[in-house]
Amino acid sequence: MADNEEKIQEHPDKYFSKKYLFISIALSIAGMAVVVYLTYTPGVLEHLKPKRLPGLFIALIVSFMRLWFSAARIRYLSEKKLSWIASFRVMLSWDFTSSVTPSTIGGAPMATFAMTKEGFRLGQSSAIILYSVLLDQLWFALAVPILLVTGLYYEVVPDNIGMVGQASMLLLYAGLLSYAGLMAYGVLKNPSAITKVLNGLFKLPFLRRWRGKIAEEAKNLEEYSHELRKKPKSFLLKAFFLTFMSWMARVALPTIVVLSLLPADVVLSVLRSLAMNLAFLIMPTPGGSGGVEGLFAIFQGPLMDRKAFIGLAVFAWRIISYYITVGLGMMATTWYINRSVIDKLQTEEAGAEINEDISAGNKH
Question: Residue-wise pLDDT tens for the chain (364 aa)?
Fold first, then answer.
């Protein structure tokens, strides 16, 4: 992440390219088109029940609730130094870059950059974002045992994904639990371990040029991690509650969309939504586009009595969960990029004025 943060601090406008945005949207449209093509039946709209359609408005409300809980978490972790508007800007920028960049890049560097534009030091911003990531990992660590236990009684992972799919999910569970344990140890138990790992990593030849800067910021990060460790348990519990509610809103969204079209097994739909949200994490495409549409059809499709409704459900879900977020996030990210450009111009102008004053003083 350090390399990405270096790039974004110097050239925020080049951090994510229009190519990624275009690829993400194109793959999403292609994914939806494939699902609709494979499941469409003429006259399907005639079978829609008007009394169920208000559920789509509930889904929209739940989607905005997820945004609110995510913003509330960032504001809470900043000890309310971030205003509500700033918290939403940071969160939307994070969501946007996560939605249009490959998973190897992610949105954390943009969120860190956004917080520096809100007046936080880079090390402090990194610590807050790192703590947010840790809370997400703790949520995953809670979700995995739930899926493993309920998997004994429900067909949480559909049989139609085959042995390879089943094995992949088990590997994903093991990876999430391991990563969550390492993150918890590094941030909550031994923050100095993070500094040692980063200092060791940046001794590598191709990373050495950033070693000095990273060493300084790692120290700031470690100091802030120690500050977080001093917080009462209630601080962690409230932050985790906000994380829990944000993820529950995300998990509930597919089920609400499905129920807005026709009846389905609610409990199984929620469990499968939880499993597929974890599976989204390993999608290699920008924002998982193209793959998440297929996973929705695989996990939720068998629960829908009318096959023709699967395409409609995928379309409604992606509009609510993806396209609205991309639109709002693009505005927030553009705001930070424009502010960065303005700040740079003001700095250059101030430097030019100082040089002129020095030149004038020398003449006198």
Answer: 444 455 555 555 555 567 778 888 899 999 999 998 888 887 777 767 777 788 899 999 999 999 999 999 999 999 899 999 999 999 999 999 888 876 656 677 888 888 988 888 877 888 788 888 888 988 998 999 999 999 899 999 888 777 877 888 888 888 888 877 777 777 777 777 767 776 776 676 656 666 666 666 666 667 766 777 777 888 889 999 999 999 999 999 999 999 998 889 999 999 999 999 998 888 888 878 888 999 999 999 999 888 888 999 999 999 999 999 889 988 988 888 877 655 555 554 555 455 555 555 555 5
Q: What would you measure as the largest C-alpha separation in the chain, in angstroms?
A: 88
